[in-house]
Structure formats: structure tokens, C-alpha cells
Specification:
About 50% of the residues lie in helices and about 15% in strands. With about 450 residues, it is α+β, with helices and mostly antiparallel strands. β3 and β4 form a beta hairpin. It has a 5-stranded antiparallel sheet with strand order 4-3-7-6-5. A 5-stranded mixed sheet has the order 9-11-12-14-13, covered by helices on one side. The protein has 3 domains: about 130 residues, Beta-Lactamase; about 80 residues; about 140 residues, Heat Shock Protein 90 (2-Layer Sandwich). The chain is built from 9 helices and 14 strands. It is rod-shaped and about 165 Å long. The two termini are about 25 Å apart. The longest helix has about 50 residues.
């Protein structure tokens, strides 16, 4: 069994469920990255300020000895492993003086940094397995003993930066989740509203199929006007083709009726001349040909599919018309008619086709009934019964075959029930033929 493809709504929803979270995840990563970069620039400025503060507080003794800087008041640089570290080196040692926060640890400053006096940024390992971001500047200062070269290094623990970035991510997550729900809901609403023209198109086609309208006129927005025009052209072409086919069939039938009338007159002439055997044979053939012509004319008027019917038919009205006509026939006048169709009910069958369907079934019942014909409508089933001789159970299935006559002693062409079967096939109706427990036949048509 061929699997039905996903609906447009389902596809849009799946796309939204994938793209919206993905887009917001990328946006979150971008915002966290921007936040981290901004915070890192702020810490860089802070370390630059500390380097300038340390450089401004350098003191030298009268003999040119370098003294420990004073006035560096940031508490993180005095508490052991406080997270802010500084270190001053000279030509004899890279760690001539260190902040109290380093305790017994010496910053492993790279030895290959250029001596250009600019700030240099780098990462290095810190105490207790921490990772540090550091700045270093080489300076030259005038001392009582002459010009002296120094390097100042300030470093900060990266852990507060990482914790701040993680906290920022936790803070924005609820807002991004809410935004995702809103965007997915908005896309669903957009799809529902955007697909409403398709609902209007479906409703318009249903009205045409149910014969409550003939065209799609003004039911679609401007974007769907080409579809509307194409559908209307197709409907017009189908209607024209059907009308031409029926007209040609009618012309053919009428064209054959004239020669058949001439043959009937010839049979009368032959009979007057004593050629009764030949005249009877001609009459039989004329009657048979007229039956075939009428049957084919009827078939030409049957729609090819239910959507092409002119309108729905009223069951009670059609049954009443058929019964009134057959009651006036010689066979119908002698019968007891019992008709019970209740209130009029619409059925999705073209009125002409329903008239042929009911007419052939009831006419067949009249042909074989001894005294009574019953026509009823119950549970959306048309039931026609007669009290005739019934049919050999082995032959029931052959009754609806084209041209089959189970009893040639009764006039007919054997085409009536085949037309019934053809109409039932077009409209998907359930045809059941069965013998009654009492003598007679019962025909059911389920709608």
C-alpha cells in the first residue's frame, strides 16, 4: 500500500521544530561568546590599569636598589591565591618581587617575549592548577645607579570569567526557551492562516462535486487565481465533452430509429401479402434493435463518475414518477402496488441515472410479478420485491450480464439489469439480488 506523504502542516511544524531551536542555540552561543569577549576585554583593561599602577609606584634606594612597591591596595593581590597576581623582574631575576597572593608560586613567564615596551597578552598556568590570563610590559626606568630594565606581569584567574559566562547562559536560557515556544506557535498559526485558501479551494470543489455550484468563482486569493482559472477551464471542458457525447449518441439513436420504422412498415406489407413468417422475423429483429438503441442511448447519458452528475436526486420524487408511469401499463394495471419511501431523501446520484436505475428494477419486477410489487426505502436502501417465480440460485449472478435473458418466453433485451449494474458501479452502490423465502425476487440497492 502506497504511503501517504506528510501534510504541509506537519512538514512546516517539523521544519519549525528543527530550525527554531537550532537558530536559537546558535544565537545563544553567539551571545555567550560576545559576553565572554566583552568581559575579557574589561579584565584586560583592568590588568592594564594594574600594570600602570605598579609602574607608577616603583621606588629605588639611594644606592640604586629596587624597593618593593607600596600602595597596591586590591585585596585579591594580598590574599593567598586570591585570583589577582603580579610579579616584577629585572635583568637578574624574572621574579624579583611578587604579590602576596602568589604565596610560594612563581609565574612562569615566557622567556621569548619581545622587549619592545608594548603590552603582551598570553595565558599561563597558575597556582593550584588554575588557568591565568596575563599581561606583561617591559619598561626602562632611570635610577640613581643609571638606566634599569624591568618587566611587570599582572595575571588574573580565568575561573570568574568562566563562571560569569556560565551564569549568563543559565540566565538567558528561560528567555530563549520561551522565545522558541513563541516562534514555533507563531509558525503554526502562520501555516494555518496561510493554508486557509486551500481549505476554501477544497470546499469549492466539494460544492461542485455535490452539485451545489458549477465553478470556482471568487473563492481564492489573488495568488491562487491561476489555479482557479485552470480548474474552471477543466470543468467547462468536461461539461462540453459530456454534452457532445450525449448529443452524438442521441443523433445516432434517432438516425437508427427511422430505418427501423421503415423495416416495421415493410413487415406489415409482407404480412398483408401472406409472408407472415418473414414479417414476424423482421418484427422480432426490429424490436431487438430498438431495445439495443434505447439501451445504448441510456448508457450514453450515464455520467462517467459521480462528480459529473448534474445534481443530487430526490428518492421519493423519482420513485413516484416511475411507479406512476408503470401503473398505467397493461402489466402494471393488474398489480397490487405497495410503495413506502417515507419522507423525500436526497441521494448523491444524477436524477437521470437514478430514474434509469429505479425504472429498470421496478420494470423487471412488474414483468415477473404475479399480483404484487413492493417498493420501499429503509436504512438508506432501496428495496424492490415481487411475488413472481424467482430465479434459479445458480443463475442469479448472470442476471446483470449484458444481453443475458434467463427466460426467452418473456419479451425483453436482457439489458435492463446490466444498465442497473453499470450505474451501481459508477456510483459505488451495493447491488444485491436474492430470492425471497416466499416465491419472488428481492433487489436491494445500498446507498
Amino acid at each position: 500500500m502506497k504511503r501517504r506523504p506528510l501534510s504541509i502542516r506537519t512538514r512546516f511544524l517539523l521544519v519549525s521544530l528543527v530550525t527554531v531551536p537550532s537558530a536559537l542555540t546558535l544565537a545563544a552561543l553567539f551571545m555567550i561568546s560576545v559576553f565572554s569577549a566583552s568581559l575579557e576585554r574589561r579584565l584586560d583593561l583592568e590588568m592594564t590599569g594594574h600594570i600602570n599602577t605598579i609602574a607608577a609606584s616603583l621606588n629605588f634606594a639611594s644606592d640604586g636598589r629596587f624597593e618593593r612597591p607600596a600602595g597596591f591596595l586590591d585585596k585579591r593581590s594580598t590574599d593567598a591565591y586570591g585570583g589577582l597576581y603580579w610579579q616584577i623582574g629585572d635583568e637578574t631575576s624574572t621574579a624579583r618581587f611578587r604579590s602576596q597572593s602568589l604565596w610560594d608560586y612563581t609565574l612562569p613567564v615566557p622567556a621569548d617575549l619581545p622587549a619592545d615596551g608594548d603590552l603582551h597578552r598570553f595565558d599561563l598556568p597558575g597556582p593550584n592548577g588554575t588557568n591565568l590570563m596575563a599581561q606583561q610590559r617591559r619598561i626602562e626606568v632611570m635610577t640613581p645607579a643609571g638606566l634599569q630594565k624591568l618587566q611587570i606581569v599582572v595575571a588574573m584567574d580565568r575561573k570568574p570569567l568562566e563562571e560569569a559566562s556560565l551564569g549568563f547562559a543559565r540566565d538567558i536560557f528561560p528567555y530563549l526557551a520561551g522565545l522558541a515556544v513563541f516562534l514555533i506557535g507563531a509558525s503554526v498559526i502562520q501555516v494555518v492562516v496561510g493554508l486557509r485558501p486551500l481549505v476554501a479551494l477544497t470546499n469549492g470543489l466539494d460544492r461542485i462535486r455535490e452539485r451545489r455550484g458549477g465553478r470556482l468563482d471568487g473563492v481564492l486569493p489573488a495568488e491562487f487565481v491561476p489555479v482557479e482559472v485552470a480548474v474552471n477551464r477543466l470543468l467547462d471542458a468536461q461539461a462540453q465533452s459530456l454534452a457532445k457525447a450525449r448529443a452524438r449518441a442521441g443523433d445516432l439513436a434517432h438516425g437508427l430509429k427511422t430505418p427501423l420504422t421503415v423495416l416495421s412498415n415493410d413487415a406489415v406489407t409482407l404480412r398483408s401479402k401472406g409472408e407472415s413468417e418473414i414479417a414476424d422475423e423482421i418484427d422480432r429483429l426490429v424490436q431487438l434493435m430498438r431495445g439495443h438503441v434505447d439501451a445504448e442511448l441510456t448508457r450514453s447519458r450515464i455520467v462517467t463518475n459521480p462528480e459529473m452528475r448534474q445534481s443530487d436526486a430526490v428518492m421519493g420524487k423519482i420513485v413516484d414518477q416511475v411507479v406512476r408511469t408503470l401503473q398505467r401499463t397493461p402489466d402494471g394495471e393488474r398489480l397490487d402496488w405497495r410503495v413506502d419511501v417515507g419522507e423525500p431523501h436526497d441521494v448523491p446520484v444524477d436524477p437521470h441515472d437514478l430514474r434509469e436505475l429505479v425504472g429498470n428494477i421496478v420494470e423487471n419486477a412488474v414483468k415477473w410479478a404475479r399480483s404484487r410489487v413492493v417498493v420501499s426505502w429503509q436504512d438508506r436502501q432501496l428495496v424492490v420485491t415481487d411475488d413472481g417465480p424467482g430465479v434459479d440460485p445458480e443463475q442469479i449472478n448472470r442476471m446483470t450480464e449484458r444481453g443475458v435473458r434467463l427466460d426467452t418466453s418473456v419479451e425483453g433485451t436482457g439489458l435492463g439489469l446490466s444498465i442497473v449494474r453499470e450505474i451501481c458501479s459508477v456510483y459505488g452502490l451495493a447491488l444485491t439480488i436474492e430470492n425471497r423465502s416466499d416465491p419472488g425476487l428481492r433487489v436491494r440497492i445500498g446507498f
